[in-house]
Amino acid sequence: MKLERYSGNPILKPDPSSWWESTVTTNPAAYYDKDKKEVIMLYRAAGNDKYHKIHFGLAKSKDGFNFERASSEPAFSPSEDGHDGGCVEDPRIIKMGNHYYITYASRHFPPGEYWLGDKARYKYPKCPEHFPKYMRDNSSITSLVITEDFKKFVRAGVLTDLMLDDRDVILFPEKVNGKFVMLHRPMQWCGNGYGTEHPAIWISMADDLFAFRKSKLLMTAEYDWELKIGGSTPPIKTKYGWFALYHAVGIDKHYRLGAFLLDLKNPEKVLCRTPDWLIEPQEDYEMNGFYSGCIFPCGTVVIDDTLFVYYGGADKYVGVATCCFSELLEELLDCPVQMAVK
């Protein structure tokens, strides 16, 4: 089964009149409020400045396709002087109790206009040797922010090891066997001794959200369209297992999507996985932007058995693609991991 693009894509694109989202609106997280019958979207945004400081915008929709921005100002921005002072990127939303828990990647300094190349882009300040490595390298770390209403936010802290470039961090929406569960993709954990040649998906379980200390390799590249892989969307609990999407970067540097199922009681066990991609970049808004050939989702919702996949296109736009969720699950069940081949 392939995901079907919405004919009205891109559903969100940069606003030339805005100071903070005139250049980029991409990589959206999403959550479906069943009581209000409303999709909440938090998306990555940036204006036209050489530092490329990145914020989150907020938009809402009643039908899952047509979104209205909630404000002319960012919903959440980099801190003034903290670990996320340069950018907040690629949010993933879950809800536990009355609170939304949002993981996001960040850097101490803005990344600069990365598409211009190292020689042309803004250079972040050089830090003294005794400063923390993540500041000296301006590498990605992942943090957690908590909110009840997307108006007031609590920066809870850093989730990942400060010595690692660790993105694609995703929390499960509930505890499993009394423990919190997290997926992540540490860039340095590959090569000899790690069980994977390229960056892959790892899983960690802990008694507290800030106690993830041990991780287990969960998934590596298996197919010819995969090289580097990472988790994309928060898991959805189904009777068959935990369903989620992942992205794979191929030899051609294009980002494609696959799906997998994890055991409900033991999420360290992969039950099923799609051997072929569900969608690959081909449209103009996926091929022409700041990363050519990129489909990058951070959120899915299910409404009346339709799976809505919200994704960033070419690091510039927001698109949505859909399919029948029950049919996708049935097809996924026909792909147990034993069938995986190189």
Strand element count: 21
List unreliable stretches of 5+ residues.
Answer: none
Major β-sheet annotation: 5 strands, antiparallel
Strand content: 35-45%
What's the SSE pattern?
Answer: EEEEEEEHEEEEEEEEEEEHEEEH
| Class derived from helix and strand content | mainly beta
- What is the average per-residue confidence, as pLDDT, rounded to a whole number? 96
Please bin the fraction of helical residues.
under 10%
Count, helices: 3
User: What is the rounded distance between the termini?
Assistant: 20 Å
Relevant terms:
342 residues, mainly beta, five-stranded antiparallel beta sheet, four-stranded antiparallel beta sheet, 21 strands, 41% strand, globular
Structure, described:
The protein is mostly beta strands. It contains 3 helices and 21 strands. Strands 14, 15, 16, 17 and 18 form a 5-stranded antiparallel beta sheet that branches. The longest helix is centred in the C-terminal third of the chain and has 9 residues, at 325-333. The relative contact order is 0.15.
